[in-house]
Design goal:
By secondary structure, this protein is α/β, with parallel strands linked by helices. Helices cover 37% and strands 16% of the residues. Strands 3-2-4-1-5-6 form a 6-stranded mixed sheet. β5 and β6 form a beta hairpin. It is globular and about 45 Å long.
Length: 201
C-alpha cells in the first residue's frame, strides 16, 4: 500500500480549532492538484477543522469525499483541558515532543500517537494492500510515527530540517503490513511559493 501523509494547510490566525487561512486553502488546492493524476482509493482526515478543510480542498481535485477519523488526530489538542491557555498548551506540547513517553492529560504520548497512526495504516492495508490512500492529518503525529522507526539523525539526513514539518508537506510511504519505507519526506515541491518550513501543530 502507498500512503500519502499530509500535514494540514496553514491555519487561520488565533488559537483553538480554527480552519485554514487563504494561504492554507491555496496550499490544499495545490496539494490536490499534485495528486490528481494518481489512482487514490480513499481520502481520510483528522476531525479538526484545519485538516477537514485541507481534505476538502484535496477532495475537489481527486474526486473522493473525505472519511473523517479520530485515529489520525493530533497527540494533544488545544481545548481538551478545561481552562488551558494557549501558552500552557505550547509548553505541554513541547514537553511531549522532548519526552516521547510522557502522556499528557487528555492526550497521547509522542510514542503512543505514532503507534496509533501505524495501527491505522495497518487497518487500511487490510483493505487496500495494493492500493493508495491519502491522509490529511498533523505534522507531529506523522513525525511521531517516523521517529518510532527511524532516528532523528536518519530523517534529517534524508531531508535536512524535516522535523519542522511544513504546511501541506507530503510524506509518502509504502507499507506492507509491517514495514514502512519512506518514498518521499515532507515534500513541498508542489507548493512553490506557498509554504515555509515552520513549527508543526
Amino acid at each position: 500500500m502507498i500512503a500519502h501523509l499530509i500535514r494540514h494547510g496553514e491555519k487561520a490566525p488565533g488559537s483553538g480549532d480554527l480552519g485554514l487561512s487563504a494561504t492554507g486553502a491555496a496550499q490544499a488546492d495545490r496539494t490536490g492538484q499534485s495528486l490528481a493524476g494518481r489512482k487514490i482509493d480513499r481520502l481520510y482526515a483528522s476531525p479538526l477543522k484545519r485538516t477537514m478543510e485541507t481534505a476538502a480542498g484535496i477532495s475537489q481535485r481527486i474526486g473522493l469525499s473525505p472519511v473523517v477519523t479520530a485515529e489520525v488526530r493530533e497527540r494533544l489538542i488545544y481545548g481538551d483541558r478545561p481552562g488551558e491557555t494557549p501558552e500552557e498548551y505550547v509548553v505541554l506540547f513541547d514537553k511531549t515532543s522532548r519526552e516521547r513517553d510522557y502522556t499528557p492529560p487528555n492526550g497521547d504520548s509522542s510514542r503512543a500517537a505514532g503507534e496509533r497512526l501505524l495501527r491505522f495504516l495497518r487497518g487500511c492495508w487490510q483493505d487496500f494492500a495494493d492500493g493508495e490512500i491519502v491522509v490529511a492529518t498533523h505534522g507531529a503525529i506523522i513525525t511521531d510515527m517516523l521517529l518510532n522507526h527511524f532516528t532523528a539523525e536518519e530523517l534529517n539526513e534524508m531531508v535536512p530540517g524535516c522535523l519542522a514539518y511544513p504546511n501541506c508537506g507530503i510524506t509518502t510511504v509504502s507499507f506492507d503490513g509491517e514495514r514502512l519505507t519512506i518514498l518521499r519526506l515532507t515534500d513541498v515541491s508542489h507548493l512553490e511559493d506557498l509554504v515555509e518550513r515552520s513549527d508543526f501543530a
